[in-house]
Every structure is written in C-alpha cells, then in structure tokens.
C-alpha cells in the first residue's frame, strides 16, 4: 500500500477518534473521488456529539465502542395481531434482547394455521426500512404464493442515523453479542410463536444488511439453514470506520495503522474472514461503485473450505437483457454448497427488484426467486 493511502487511513482514524467528523468526512469523500489527500495536522476535539460519516451511499455512525449487556433477557411485543385474509397480513412489533430493542415487521401468509412453514429473515440496507425493502424485493408476494413467513428486523435511527446495521463494529460480529444476538433471538421467538419449521429458516440481506446476514451465517449455523448476501461483505471485513471505507472501496481490508492501539476484543488486521458453515448464495453487480464486487468473491471463498474444489460456470442473460455469470460449487454430499451470481453491468441494487422500492435494478436476473430456490433446497438436520 502506498504511503499516501496509509496516511489517509491514519488521518481518517485520528480525526474520527478526536471528534473532528466534518474534516474526516471530507478526507473520505476526497478519497472516494480518487483524490488521496496529503496528511494534515489533526485538531483537538470540537465536540463529543455523535455524528454520521457519509461513505458514498452508506452512512456509518461514529461512536465509541461499548460492551453490550450480557443479561440474557428477551421480550417480544406485537402491536398488531394477525387476522389473515386472502393476502396475508403484514404486522408490526418490537423485540428486546440483552438490553437492545429493535422494531420489526412480519409477513404472515394466509392459511398458515396448523402448518409448520419456513421463515425467511430479510435485513434491509442503509436508508431503507422493512416496508421499502419488502416493496423492492417483492418477497411478500412470493411468500403469499409459496407459503412462508418473512421477518424484517429494523435498524433504529438511534443506533445509526442512516439505518445501517453495525456489521463493521467488532462488538456486533460474534455469537451472543449485539445486533446478531438480537436478530437471532427475534428469529427464535417468531419460530416459537407460530410453530414454524425450525429446520427451514433462512437469512438474506442487501448491502449493510447483507454483511450482517453473513455475520449471522457464521455465528448461528444452528438456526439458519442457508444465507443470501446481495451486494454485501464478508463477516469480519472491518472492525472500524476506516477499515470499512477501505474494504468497501477496494475489496481489500486489514491494513495496520502505525501507532494505533487495537481495542480489546477487536480482530487483528491479519485475521482471515471467519468461515461460513452453511450453504451460501451471493449476488453482486460487477459495476457496483459502493461495495466492490471483490467482496462477493471473498464471501464465496469463505465457503470453499466446505465445498468440493472447482466450480461449474454458467453464462446467461436475464429476461431484460442483463448478462450474468453463475458459479456453482457442490459439497461432498453432492448438494449445492454455494452459488455466486456476478451480474454484468449491475450496480449497487437488488437484481430483478421492483421499482416500488429503493436500490433495485429490474434488468438483472431475479435475485428474490433464485435465493428462494436455493434456500428451499436446503434444511437443517433434525
């Protein structure tokens, strides 16, 4: 890595830690435009108020890491009880676990009574919410037609002003910690309440939500039977804002900042991405300017240790003329362990999505349909 880029990362980190967030934002924005600045002296903290840093289309809240409570408490509150009609119901609720509370929405399909149906957990991207994400992916319409539940946890504006999941914070990247523990607890609460099929539970997400889905896949292989990551990043790709910037921009992470002390519990720069032990499907546009497509390759690489060597490659064209390359790897048992859909000409958007939601591209192959096909071909062992 060249000296200027090392200086940039050191400077952005120092500005963030000292509270000079407007200057850090300018440094980051200049870098994203391809103009790596020369180092400038950092000033004393101007204030301690928490503020966001803008990184292209993703916004990260800058806060001092704090230890999550270890109290094992969980509470789920529904603001609406479903009275399912022909189209099902889209209900609201909130869930508390270990001191964290998040709202959520749940799609309940019609005619579910007495049936042990599957569950798909959907994690939205930055600036999105459950309604927006549901509209863009069309997941509820598929759930109505195919008969499964859809759970949409919602990131709070108090935790992040732009509703980004905390995939880049080391205290939200492991089993039993932070947001992953909350989402897993919420998942189990919904399974129990509706007597769902615990062998057929899946998680998917877009961008920051995709990165958090990858965290859940690594941390809770006993809950989720398969994972779908769209335009996301591998678990452990970053443990702070500076590393998040680097891995989003280039797909490379793990630089060592001179003079920077590692926080207790944070992963070292040289650590590899944790392996993914469950079947994984990845969608990524090869012209994604927000999250480099190299991150999709690294996600697949994290699964390769559990899949047979070599990949089956397929070239195709979507119904709307978008080309793609599909890479398939099979496990030792012969079942499909991973699929990597590289959408040629695709940007940072849900492939085959609907215009009713944000960050969608209706020209690409149908990510919603392909993820569901992949999901329902896998289930946990009894």
From TrEMBL:
The keyword Plastid does not apply. Residues 81-95 have a biased composition (Polar residues). Coiled coil: none annotated. Its EC number is 3.1.1.75. One of its GO terms (cellular component) is extracellular region. GO terms for molecular function: poly(3-hydroxybutyrate) depolymerase activity. Residues 72-96, 256-278 are annotated as: Disordered. This is Putative PHB depolymerase. Keywords: Hydrolase, Signal. It comes from the Bacteria.
